[in-house]
Design brief:
Elements: H1 17-25, E1 29-33, E2 39-42, H2 44-50, H3 57-60, H4 70-83, E3 87-94, E4 100-111, E5 117-126, H5 128-148, H6 153-167, E6 171-178, E7 185-189, H7 195-202, H8 210-217, E8 221-223, H9 236-243, E9 248-255, E10 261-269, H10 277-316, E11 319-325, E12 331-333, H11 335-341, H12 351-357, H13 363-373, E13 379-386, E14 392-403, E15 409-417, H14 419-474, H15 480-508, E16 516-518, H16 520-537, E17 541-545, E18 553-555, H17 557-575, E19 584-591, E20 596-603, H18 631-641, E21 645-650, E22 656-663
Parallel strand pairs: 17-19
Antiparallel strand pairs: 1-2, 1-5, 3-4, 4-5, 6-7, 6-10, 8-9, 9-10, 11-12, 11-15, 13-14, 14-15, 16-18, 19-20, 20-22, 21-22
Helix pairs in contact: 5-6, 5-10, 6-10, 7-9, 14-15, 16-17, 17-18
The protein binds adenosine-5'-diphosphate (ADP).
The site of adenosine-5'-diphosphate (ADP) has 22 residues, from α17 and α18.
């Protein structure tokens, strides 16, 4: 395009030849223009750079401006002329070889002594490198946005290749990923290269092409001229590359922050190129962005996979998640929780909303759980929901407290719908207790019959002997010898009856024991674990406070666990029907100063009321309609045999605390038969609470 054919190149009037030479020798592209804007001088560099002749350049200089940039440039130049102020603008200039490169064009007005504008002069400086780096930086930001938007890896890598191709015109970019085993490549992206060429890269063994070599050796590999490079002479990839006109290739490994190679980024050229310093800087930048693209998208994909996995697991196990900031009370629910509570997912979650679903009977314990949240400790809780159709759901919550940098507490919790499990447990418990009732009734019947049978014989003997004795004493003369003999028989039968009772007692609670070192903390843990669902079902919160320094006691693990289980069951039963206060169970272990291990089970149940605590340990003492009244008496007997004590006290705020203590080295009472010990239980040794 030659906008002004009349103009011819004229040296500026008055300018010395010497000065002209200096300007021509300047490393920048210098030009001047008349106040009207007409260009009247372009220095030798300008001509050399664009390859235009001195004769035509003044008419045709606009032909050297990239057609996309020319309209904007002329618009700004015209605004510049009106303002008369210095200006800076960017435009691409075509080099003599046809390649366009970015330039910064600076203009300055030249004024005479009276301040009148006489000339414009300008300097064009090449800023291609800066523009490329800026384009890459902008690209990096955009790429991160794509990753954040969750775009698929293929889209992101293709976008990256196109970015590289736009900042390094004339090149074709490809990305191949290293498979997890680190021995083979797989296709990533190569939007401008034929697939068969890419296949020749990824299918080839290591060392068969520069891309695979770079990835497997973790080194940059430059092939500036494929025709003369001997390294690939025998590789089939070379034929394929030349077939598609590829003559040069830069391959750089993509290295993750951890130092692991994740792939290779290659830039292919279809002409011969040398690796200039600019290209090296650019390549470094490209490799860095490629590593971000691959690492972030892989990370994102892994995260998405595990999120999907988690969501599926949650769906299958009817588990939802929620978080709660303790300071603000802000609660966030997962979709699953909304489904469980049957609330619209658009509804903001508030405590009132949750509470409106909580079963009225569980509201006290629910509030108790909220109160415990204020303490910022991990907790587990179970409560029921009463749904609008009057159906009941059982919810089990496991919450973990975390603290942010400012120390604020936030709960991350899992909530599971355990309704089905609770229903089948309830059915099982129902069946079990029915079975136990039948077994108890029948064993009681059998026991009673056997007691009657065993005791009846000596009793009738005593009665017969006593009447014979009376008859002998009433005879004339009295038969003293016979009376003495029958009295002796009466005593014998009395002793036999007492012996029978003794044997029955022994039989009742006689079990072989194994003496071992028992860790009571561990035993409590085992029992509470077994017992947990029953506790949850009953809406009881358990607090376990175990002494860290608790030594083992020597004794019978099973028997001691039987005592603990009995105390827990009693506590649970004592809390049945308590709805005006939280149902809480506290299990504590302590070590006294004189090496005595103490276990306490405290509840918030009904307490003893008017009953005297000491009577509780009597055999067959019970206040429960279906009770047998032997649990505590057997427990007491077991603890006595460990050389310890069992006692009960009423709690001030309601409920009771049952405690037992055992010396660290407890001595079991043994019978004399070869060292096996027997518990003698069921007898009421009235013992006051210490
Ligand atoms: P049972 O449980 O069959 O009644 P136990 O010997 O275990 O037999 O208990 C005897 C009695 O002691 C119970 O009926 C009850 O009145 C009282 N008792 C036991 N544990 C507690 C407790 N934690 N709180 C209040 N009373 C209790």
């Amino acid at each position: 395009m030659c906008p002004d054919k009349q103009l011819t190149f004229q040296p500026i009037a008055g300018m010395e030849n010497e000065l002209l030479q200096v300007i021509d020798a300047l490393p920048g592209l210098v030009w001047t223009a008349l106040p009207s804007g007409q260009v009247d001088f372009l220095n030798r560099r300008w001509r050399e750079y664009t390859g235009m002749s001195a004769e035509t350049i003044l008419q045709c200089w606009q032909d050297a401006i990239h057609p996309d940039d020319l309209p904007e440039l002329l618009k700004r130049w015209s605004a510049n002329l009106s303002s008369g102020e210095p200006q800076e603008m960017d435009a691409r200039l075509r080099r003599f070889d046809g390649e366009y490169r970015w330039f910064l064009i600076r203009t300055r007005p030249v004024l005479d002594a009276s301040g009148q504008l006489v000339k414009w002069c300008g300097l064009n400086t090449e800023i291609e490198d800066r523009r490329r780096i800026e384009a890459l930086l902008a690209g990096e930001t955009e790429l991160l946005e794509l990753v954040a938007a969750g775009r698929p890896m293929a889209v992101i890598l293709e976008w990256f290749c196109r970015l590289v191709e736009s900042v390094a015109p004339g090149c074709y970019c490809s990305i191949a990923l290293l498979q997890p085993a680190g021995t083979h490549l797989e296709h990533g992206a190569a939007p401008s290269l034929p697939r068969e060429f890419i296949d020749s890269i990824i299918d080839g063994p290591a060392e068969s092409n520069p891309c695979a070599s770079a990835a497997l050796s973790n080194e940059q590999i430059i092939v500036s001229d494929l025709l003369s490079d001997p390294r690939w002479a025998l590789c089939s990839w070379r034929q394929m590359a030349l077939h598609h006109g590829i003559h040069a290739c830069w391959s750089m490994p993509i290295v993750a922050a951890s130092g692991k190679v994740t792939g290779v980024c290659s830039i292919h050229y279809d002409g011969r190129r040398r690796s200039a310093p600019l290209d090296q800087a650019l390549i470094g930048q490209i490799a860095r962005i490629a590593s971000i693209a691959v690492e972030r998208t892989q990370h994102d994909a892994t995260l998405k996979r595990s999120e999907a996995f988690l969501a599926e697991t949650r769906r299958l196990s009817s588990t939802g998640g929620f978080s709660k900031r303790v300071s603000t009370g802000e609660i966030t629910w997962s979709e699953e929780v909304y489904r469980m509570f049957e609330f619209d997912a658009a509804r903001p979650v508030t405590l009132e909303l949750i509470r409106s679903r909580v079963h009225p009977e569980d509201r006290v314990s629910f509030d108790d759980m909220l109160e415990r949240q204020q303490r910022g400790i991990d907790y587990e809780h179970e409560y029921r929901l009463l749904m609008p159709d009057q159906s009941v759901k059982y919810m089990h919550v496991v919450a973990h407290a975390i603290r942010d940098a400012s120390g604020q507490c936030e709960y991350m919790a899992a909530i599971q719908d355990v309704t089905e499990r609770r229903r089948s447990e309830a059915a099982l418990i129902e069946a079990r207790s029915e079975l136990a009732r039948v077994a108890r009734a029948s064993s009681f019947g059998v026991l009673t019959a056997s007691i009657a049978h065993e005791v009846n014989q000596p009793l009738s003997g005593i009665i017969t002997n006593a009447s014979t004795c009376l008859r002998m004493l009433g005879a004339e003369p009295p038969n003293l010898e016979g009376a003495r003999e029958t009295a002796r028989r009466t005593i014998r039968d009395g002793n036999r009856a007492s012996e029978v009772i003794k044997r029955l007692r022994a039989l009742f609670c006689k079990t072989d024991t194994t003496i071992e070192n028992v860790d009571l903390n561990e035993s409590i843990g085992e029992i509470v674990t077994l017992f947990r669902s029953e506790l949850h079902r009953s809406g009881v919160t358990v607090q376990i406070d175990l002494a860290g320094n608790l030594p083992c006691v020597s004794g019978d693990r099973v028997q001691l666990q039987q005592v603990i289980l009995n105390l827990l069951l009693n506590a649970l039963e004592a809390m049945n029907g308590i709805d005006d206060r939280p149902r809480r169970l506290l299990v504590v272990t302590e070590l006294d100063a004189n090496d005595i291990v103490r276990v306490s089970v405290a509840d918030t149940g009904a307490g003893f009321g008017i009953h005297e605590p000491a009577r509780l340990f009597d055999a067959f003492y019970t206040t429960k309609p279906g009770g047998m009244g032997i649990g505590l008496s057997v427990s007491k007997s077991i603890i006595d045999n460990h050389g310890g004590q069992l006692w009960a006290i009423g709690n001030e705020s309601g409920g009771a605390t049952f405690s037992f203590s055992i010396p660290k080295q407890s001595k079991l009472r043994k019978d004399g038969n070869g060292g096996s010990a027997h518990w003698i239980a069921g007898v009421t040794d009235r013992q006051q609470s210490p």
